[in-house]
Amino acid sequence: MEDLGKLQSMFHWPYPSALPGMRFRTPRSILRTATFLLLLVAGFASPARSATAPPRPTPDRPNILLIVSDDQAWTDHGFMGHPEIRTPHLDRLASRSLCFTRGYVPSSLCCPSLASLITGRYPHDHGVVCNDPPRPAGMTGAEFYRSDAYRAGRERMSSFLEKTPTLPRLLQERGYLSFQSGKWWQNEFSRGGFTHGMTRGQRHGDAGLEIGRVTMKPIEDFVAMAEQEHRPWMVWYAPMMPHDPHTPPERFLARHRSLSPSLPVARYRAMVEWFDETCGQLLDFLERRGSDRNTLVVFVTDNGWITDPQTGRFAPRSKQSPYDGGLRTPILVGWPDRVAARRDDTHAVSSLDLMPTLLRAAGLEVPKDLPGIDLMDARAVRRRTSVLGECFTHDAVNLDRPASGLRWRWIVRDGWKLILPTPWNEPTGAPELYRITKDPFERTDLASRYPTRVNRLRRELDKSWEPAGD
Hints:
Elements: H1 2-10, H2 27-43, E1 63-69, H3 88-95, E2 98-104, H4 110-119, H5 123-126, H6 141-145, H7 148-162, H8 167-171, E3 177-182, E4 196-197, H9 217-228, E5 233-238, H10 250-259, H11 263-289, E6 295-301, H12 324-327, E7 328-334, E8 342-344, E9 349-350, H13 354-361, H14 378-383, E10 386-392, E11 406-413, E12 416-421, E13 432-434, H15 451-464
Parallel strand pairs: 1-5, 1-6, 2-8, 2-9, 3-4, 3-5
Antiparallel strand pairs: 2-7, 6-7, 10-11, 11-12, 12-13
Helix pairs in contact: 10-11
């Protein structure tokens, strides 16, 4: 419960906990808690029923479990070869899934990355390019989060997502119920098209952040309800783990104290293992219900992370950067009896591919303008020539001009990676080129040695989006 209090204070959580064992200190807190519980019950209310019976889960309409890790390096899994971190549950999932070890997210910042995941589009396309709206000059972060300017900006960002088809909104066409839990930036869960959920509108996800760290019961209750109604379901499991605050249980931290270079690193590694445990709890729950055979399970990370061994914050070349430390993630797609387990260490894929993959699995037509491919189509994976993306400022510069906050564009093609800075936000930057398959930690910049390749990759980036500065 101490960890929950830290979460509430750190992320401006407006709700007191209503979990067993917590004491309410004032009548006002009782009223606020009662209001929260009523809202939570309302969130679980079923949507209006159609005149015809909705479809049951079938091999052509599988349940969908989307597991999203938060601030985790691509290296930090057992199945990716980390020598100290143990992730037995995700290792097991990887062993029975399509396992793409060279996956990428289009942006190394959580809010635009999650918006891209749920829309299948680049940040500049859906419009959510930053974590926060523009902050007025002279205003502190704490003041900003309480201000009318922040609320207006967040509302504007949510409106962008409402104008863009999202995965849960499209799945409703096939009779799916959907549940949001964990990290969610765009105000109430329904703004993203979810039929049910936990987040009511605060930064990061308010009550949704209890999932994983405190309880798994809201997901379990939702799945039981959906299956009782014979409805196919989708669950968005995006706990703020291993994201800081790094407050792991001692049962995980004890082993890493002696194995890690510093206590902050030990705490982060223990958080990774705690997150893995919660994934195991969720997968075991589905197996006990007999629901696992008809559930398509996806794993991806919202963005990378490297722990600063002194501060415990993210180190350079990880989160918010254009390097693989911030952009790369393994991507898993598991579907018993429908997807053959296979590890792919060769082809670069993208989290943008998950939207068409899941839509097609659910029997829905894939919008023709989506940039991604179906990862279960081996031919499409082989034909893919490049993966690309874009990184923006943490706070927006101008919400109506995505390019105003652009810092870098990047592209991976044929084992090479080009990072292209924008002169209006990175005036001292220069193009960087890496032989990414042989130099995965981007230690040797080859741009000066291969100018022709730099220009060729730049032209391909410009075909996707050639932004104009201010």
